[in-house]
Amino acid sequence: MSTLVSLGAGVVFGLALAAPPGPMNAVIAEESVLRGRLAGFQAGLGAATADAVFFVLAYVGVVAVVESLPLLRAAMVAVGGVLMLYFAVDAARGARASFRPTSGDEPAIGSGEGFRKALVLALTNPYQVLFWLTVGVGMLRPGELDVLARLPVVGADLAGTFVVATGSPALIGGFFLGVLTWIVGFPTGLVAAERRIETLAPVVAIGSAIVLAGFGVYFLYDAATTIDALALLAGVV
């Protein structure tokens, strides 16, 4: 029973990381409506590959080292910001197409461009680094987490009813199962909707461009303020 609970909790954690709106889902959405479901899945697979990399790095402790070096973190954020602005321009260009390409014009579907795009963005995304520093490290550390016992008022009555075994293969496997569920279901839903709503493709592409540009500007601002703060601190010291 505890194995099933841990598996289910892992799926929830995976969906919690993969589902919220952000640059990764903007890329997946753009690839899905402009190039098809396979291209959207490939983009999602790129983001999932980054999670696998972060999983290994968190396991050996490298992710914590990156966060402890503010200048390195600022450089990663700046690179991510520049890349997001670049891909925002690419998404805006893709919005010129009113419909997903027909079967005779689909060479980009298997090109792997979306995979590379999402992989690079995910590897330079500070939010994913932060996830693996917090939730990710907690998932990897062996132990037990009594989830409902932490609830106010009713926690004492519900203690022991939802215990997750952290560090277990079931929890980690469930996490990646949750991510896989999203990167399959999200592109499938978008493509199905695009077939019914002819204007969906350009709208999604424009929305993706806006999201990527917004995060790009924010990341560059975050990197600049971090570097300024470090420079001031160095001047004081």
From TrEMBL:
It comes from the Archaea. Keywords: Cell membrane, Membrane, Transmembrane, Transmembrane helix. GO terms for biological process: amino acid transport. It is found in: Cell membrane. Signal peptide: none annotated. GO terms for cellular component: plasma membrane. The chain crosses the membrane at residues 42-64, 71-89, 118-140, 147-165, 171-193, 200-221. It is a multi-pass membrane protein. This is Threonine/homoserine/homoserine lactone efflux protein. It comes from Halorubrum xinjiangense.
